[in-house]
Structure formats: structure tokens, C-alpha cells
Specification:
176 residues, alpha+beta, Fusion Protein Consisting Of Minor Coat Protein, Glycine Rich Linker, Tola, And A His Tag, Chain: A, Domain 2, 2 domains
Length: 176
């Protein structure tokens, strides 16, 4: 009987100790979900398949310097837009202009190329670079497409003034 009452007391203390731990876990999960919903880049990944591919792979060297004067997407009052639409308009444009390189098809290369770039106050794209690559052919194709974009964006605004905005943009290459 003596042992039984002390183990009940210990169990109560254990439950009390678990409450702050459980609260911390719930809080950290909530913070991660909020972070995932932040618009740091266009909302959709662009998936390029070999069925929609033509045989062209022209690449340029990625920009090696990251723009330090660019404003984060979170700090903007007005987000940049492409063709007056939401962030998915740029994804559609990339998908229309992307080709799956023949050498990547032959090698079986596929995966997600993560690109970084900036939208300047005048609406042009700059500082296009590979943040995480897959293969030289796929990286070169992703760079080629972004470098070929001559259409201007509507720039992001802070305090009513256009500012340079940094973007992260994923392109998924997938063989079928």
C-alpha cells in the first residue's frame, strides 16, 4: 500500500512534467506550419516532363554573388507580380518555355533544381543563380529559361516605393 501511493504521486509529477513538453511540441509544430505558408517564392513548383520536352540545352553561368540589398518577401507591403497575375503565372511561363534536355533523358537525370533570383525596382530579373542543382544539363536548362525571361514584373513595394526583392524558385524535372 505504501508503494502504491508513492507511485501514484510519481505518476502525477510525471504528467505535470509532460504538460510543458507537450505545449512546446504543439507550439513548434504551429510555428513550422506558419513558416511553410510564407510566400518566399511562387507557390507552385514547375514540373517539366520528358513528354513536353524539346531537345535544347543552352546554359549560362550562375551569378555567384547573392544580392545583399534585396528585401525579403515577408517584408513587402505589395508582392511582385508577373503578367499581372499571382505567383503561379511565372510558373506557367516557365513551364511553357522549358525543355527537357536530351542528354538528361538519356542519363535518366531527374530532380528539383532550386534557383534564386531578384526582381529589381524596374521589374527586371537579375542575380539568377543555382542554389541547389541536380545535374549539369538540368541546371543549365533551368538557368537558360530564367535568363531568357525578358518580360518585366510589377515590382514589390515597401512604403509605396519599388524595391529589389529576392526569390527562391523550384523547378522539378521528372521522367515518365
Amino acid at each position: 500500500m505504501i508503494l502504491k501511493s508513492s507511485s501514484i504521486g510519481r505518476m502525477r509529477l510525471l504528467y505535470l512534467a509532460l504538460i510543458p513538453l507537450l505545449a512546446l511540441v504543439v507550439y513548434s509544430c504551429t510555428c513550422n506550419k506558419k513558416g511553410e505558408n510564407k510566400e518566399a517564392s511562387p507557390a507552385e513548383e514547375v514540373t517539366v516532363t520528358e513528354e513536353s520536352a524539346a531537345a535544347e540545352a543552352v546554359g549560362t553561368e550562375p551569378a555567384t554573388e547573392v544580392a545583399t540589398d534585396a528585401v525579403s518577401f515577408d517584408a513587402l507591403e505589395v508582392k511582385p507580380t508577373f503578367r499581372g497575375g499571382d505567383a503561379n503565372e511565372f510558373s506557367k511561363w516557365v513551364n511553357e518555355n522549358m525543355t527537357y534536355p536530351e542528354e538528361a533523358i538519356a542519363a535518366g537525370d531527374q530532380g528539383r533544381v532550386l534557383l534564386g533570383f531578384c526582381i529589381n525596382p524596374d521589374g527586371t530579373m537579375s542575380d539568377i543563380r543555382i542554389l541547389r542543382g541536380v545535374s549539369p544539363a538540368l541546371d543549365a536548362e533551368a538557368l537558360r529559361v530564367l535568363n531568357s525571361c525578358t518580360e518585366k514584373w510589377t515590382p514589390g513595394l515597401v512604403n509605396g516605393q519599388p524595391v529589389k526583392v529576392s526569390f527562391t524558385f523550384p523547378i522539378v524535372f521528372q521522367l515518365k
